[in-house]
Amino acid sequence: MRPKYPRVGSSVVSFLATIACLSIVLAVTYFLVIKSDDVVVEQTPKQIQVEPETALVLEEQRTERVSPKVTTKTIVEAPKVSPEEVVTAHLEAGEFGKAIETAETVSNLNQRTQLLKMVVQAQLKSGDFVAALGTINRIPLADERTKIMGERAQAMSLAGGAQLADFTQLIDLIQTQTSGLWADTGDGEGTIRQFDSGVRVDPHGLLHHINKTELDGRLAALGIKAREADLNKNVAQNSQLRLISLTRLEKEVQQLIEEGRSPVETMKMLAGLTKVEYIFVYPKDQEVVIAGPAEAWTYNDQGLAVGIESGRPVLQLDDLVTVLRTFSDQGEEIFGCSFDPRPDGLARVKEYVAKSNARGPLRAGAGVRNWTKQLKDKLGVQDITLYGVPDTSRVARVLIEADYRMKMIGIGKMDAGDNIPSYFDLLATHNSKDSQKLEALRWWLTMKYDSVLHNAQRTAYQVVGSSVLCQSENQIVTKDGERLQTGKAEELNREFAANFTKHYQELAQRDLVYADLQNIFDLAMVAALMRNEQLANRAGWNMNAFAVNGAYHPAEFEPAHTVETVVNHRVYNGKDVVVQVAGGVRVDTRSVVKNRDNLKVSEKVGTLSTQSKAPALPVGRWWWDLTN
Asked: What's the CA gap between 523 and 321, in Å, rounded?
């Protein structure tokens, strides 16, 4: 018998089997679908990432191509860099000289002043006070120049001293205590610069005498005192014969200037040389050498460098360069100065004295004072004529001061000691009974050398008997005030000049301006010998820094154009004796070396030249001592 409902069970089983199969199919399908989706998802990001990376690389390459164009534009605009930036760059590099050159190309005075002040401040910061002073002198605006000079003085004070004497305070004192249209005080256009050692120049170029007591008092009040020079032990040693190679010295000076630095103190004072006795040329070694005694030096209370033992002024590089340029192709080969009275003043005085003598003796006291004042007013001033050297040079200053003092000695307004009496003192001893009128005397200084010795090869020279000669002449004053040369000197005039010459060395110890003048004569002899004997050419020396328009600039001083007329009077036998003096200084050393009678052969000089050749020297050394 068959069971009831026999298909029900099989149907359920079939149904379940069908569902199971479908589940399997769905599971497989699901798996396959999910796996396929994963592949797509994983591949899609790769495709997306590749395209952006390629695009970024291309954009960076475009940026690099644009960058050089920006640099090119900057180079094109370089000329627009301001002078301030150029000066700053030079100063940061320590190139002071180039910074000054840049500043001086600026035409605007205010801007140039500011640029030069930048240089000065940098030099002060480095401690180079001498170079700073040179730059200050280039500043065109006087008020700014005065301000920065004060900053320099303060910096020097904080540094514990100065490299050279500074008269800024003294100049300020003179400006405040004298009448005058000073540019620095805002009253006018006059200026004042250093012109020490007993004379000063006012805003109008008028030379005035400052007596020693007055000058010493002012210096003491300002605390300006003598000081020692800062020297190393080698140059500080005394030497009977120190040799200086001018060729090596110029090379070292040129290098310092190119580096924007100032020549050092030893260079400026020529290693302490106090006299020039020899000049040597060594053609094979391309050397020109000068030689003489030398010693350590100090600065006296007027700022002059003097030997510690001898007390004589040392020779100075500024003076040497000045006279070398005078005895060059572009120079006059002669230099000097003269004091020339104005004819109208002499005519007035001549008439005034004649009328005064006709009226009889002067009344004592107020009468004499009034007479003297009128005499001075009628005379006016004398003109100072300078030739052969710059009127701002130290050489010019020494010439003018020495000449002025000589005339003051001659008329009894300065004391030169018992051995050099004034013209009036001589007049009194001769008991002249002549009725005197205006005496026009002429006194002038020139060089005096006994001889110049040389060897047969003319490579060694010795200067013998170096001194100074005072010459004299009586002149006639016409009614129009013209001075007529006579070519003769009466007895008293000759006697004064002879005393001055004979006792010159004593006077040079008493008054250093005369020793200074003799030093300049010696350096002029060096320059004249070099010129006449062609020493520079024989040594193959083409001057650079020392040449005319060379890079070395000697210090400058205020030039003097006029001077109060040198005149004085005394009363003898009831008559007024008025003495007015003219004259000057004449340096014609080339006439000495051209005179064959002055040149004599001496083989001893040649032997010394051989012994004096330069030994092996340290790099940069330009001087040495002869060791026995």
From this structure: 9
Q: pLDDT at position 28, please?
A: 57
Examine residue 129 and state whether it is found in any structural domain, yes or no.
Answer: yes
Under DSSP, is residue 534 helix (H, G, I), strand (E, B) or coil? coil
Tell me the average pLDDT across 349-366.
71
Residue bearing tokens 């004649």: 354
Q: CA 535 → CA 187, 453, 502, distances in Å?
A: 52, 15, 33
Rounded to an integer, what distance in angstroms lies between the CA atom of residue 186 and that of residue 190?
10
CB 189 within 8 A of CB 265: no
pLDDT of residue 29: 58
Residue 202 placed within a domain: no
What would the pLDDT profile of 214-234 be if each residue is shown by its tens digit? 445 544 444 444 455 556 678
Render pLDDT for 95-122 as a digit per residue (tens, 0 to 9).
788 888 889 889 898 999 999 999 998 8
- The angle at the Cα of 582, spanning 577 to 588, to the nearest 5 degrees, equals 150
Under a CB-based contact definition with an 8 Å cutoff, are residues 84 and 116 in contact? Answer: no
- Residue 110 sits in which domain range? 52-163
- Could you give the C-alpha distances from 559 to 203, 341, 384, 392, 407, in angstroms and in order? 10, 18, 10, 5, 20
Of the candidates 163, 184, 213, which is a domain's last residue? 163
Cα dihedral across residues 237, 238, 242, 246: positive or negative: positive
Domain membership of residue 562 (yes or no) is: yes
R_g of the chain, CA atoms, integer Å: 43
Answer yes or no: is 207 within a domain: no
State phi, psi for 464 to the nearest 5 degrees: -115, 135
Phi, psi dihedral angles at 151 (to 5 degrees): -65, -40
From the number of C-beta atoms within 10 Å of its C-beta (0-12, 13-18, 19+), residue 207 rates as buried
Q: Give the three-state DSSP class for 500.
A: helix
Q: Which two tokens stand for residue 120?
A: 């000065």
Q: How far is CA 225 from CA 151, 190, 228, 236, 432, in A?
A: 20, 28, 10, 21, 47
Instruction: Please tell me the distance from the alpha carbon of residue 83 to that of residue 112, in angstroms, as a whole number.
Output: 9
- Taking residue 509's Cβ as centre, other Cβ atoms within 10 Å add up to 13
Helix axis angle for 109-126 and 96-103, nearest 10°, is 170
Question: Count of domains in the chain?
Answer: 2
Q: What integer best gives the mean pLDDT of the chain?
A: 76
Task: Tally the residues of the chain.
Answer: 628
CA atoms of 237 and 623, how far apart (whole Å): 13
